[in-house]
Amino acid sequence: MNKSSKIFVAGHTGLIGSAIIRKLRLMGYARIITRTHKSLDLKDRKRTESFFSKEQPEYVILAAAKVGSIQANDTYPAEFIFENLTIQNNVIDLSWKYRVKKLLYLGSSCAYPKKCSQPMKEESLLTGSLEPTNEPYAIAKLAGIKMCQAYHRQYGAKFISVIPANVYGINDHFDENAHVLPTLIKRFHQACLKKSKSVVLWGTGKPKREFFYVDDLADACLFLLKKYNEPEVINVGVGQETSISQLAQKIRKISGYRGELVYDTSRPDGNPRRLLNSSKVSALGWKA
Questions:
Q1: CATH of segment(s) 7-169+211-239+275-284
Q2: Which band of pLDDT confidence, cut at 50, 70 and 90, is reported for residue 269?
Q3: Contact between 210 and 276 (Cβ < 8 Å)
Q4: Which residues form the NAD-dependent epimerase/dehydratase domain (predicted)?
């Protein structure tokens, strides 16, 4: 991949996609192709094929996905599995059909089993049951990984899959579909404005997550586009985890909130831990 390569970033307005755009521009890549959801719905096979036929991208970064919180996954399971399967089926298949030189697919740590030894190694995928609260989303992500591997095996396509840790950063969502970190920031901010006596947190606060700044993920993705060609999925993270209660206390301190923290244990915790083993990418020479 060189500075004149045509690179299509699918999902460029999202958290991960926008970070990849920033990194590409910073590194001097000039031929970046993007489309908003309004101008190109990747679920529409006909329109997506027309786009590939016209633009002929050389490299594709598939960051487009329907993502969300535990609550969103629990409320809209059909949308999560259908939309993600449809987007990735179209983009991966058309990338092969229009001879894309290389595709990078972004998976999710949700794809690992609920009861998985920590830190999670790539070979642990499909060795146990998934966390029920986001199972449809996780199955879609697993399907994307397997699709990349199948196209690699049958057609020799250079399609690689990356599983990142829990990302946060610029262009994160703060609506009902937000992940835990922006959700907590919003709750404490609103509690300060309203001078609320308490902030309610879902679950026990015991689950641990590996929080990963999105610009570091973007750096890792571009590194892997140049250095990695294997069909086996590869983890990318920082190797440190923080419990939800620790995170809440940090945000509480920064925000200046002085009220009570209430844990609603009637709400689900999600996966107890989700720490990635990133030794594979480290061995290639990348570290956050």
A1: 3.40.50.720
A2: confident
A3: yes
A4: 7-237
Q: Where are the domains of the chain?
A: 7-169+211-239+275-284
H or E stretch covering 119: none
Please provide residue 135's backbone torsions phi and psi, each rounded to the nearest 5 degrees.
Answer: -60, -45
112 is catalytic: no
The answer for residues whose C-beta is within 8 angstroms of residue 131's C-beta and 6 or more apart is: 110, 114, 138, 270, 271
Is residue 243 over pLDDT 90?
Answer: yes
Nearest-5° Cα angle at 134, 90 to 274 = 105
- Residues 270 and 134: their CA atoms lie apart, in Å, by 8
Please tell me what DSSP assigns to residue 255.
H
- The answer to whether the peptide bond before residue 132 is cis (omega within 30 degrees of 0) is no
Rounded to an integer, what is the distance from CA 85 to the centroid of its chain?
15
Q: Which position among 29, 112, 137, 151 bears the catalytic label?
A: 137
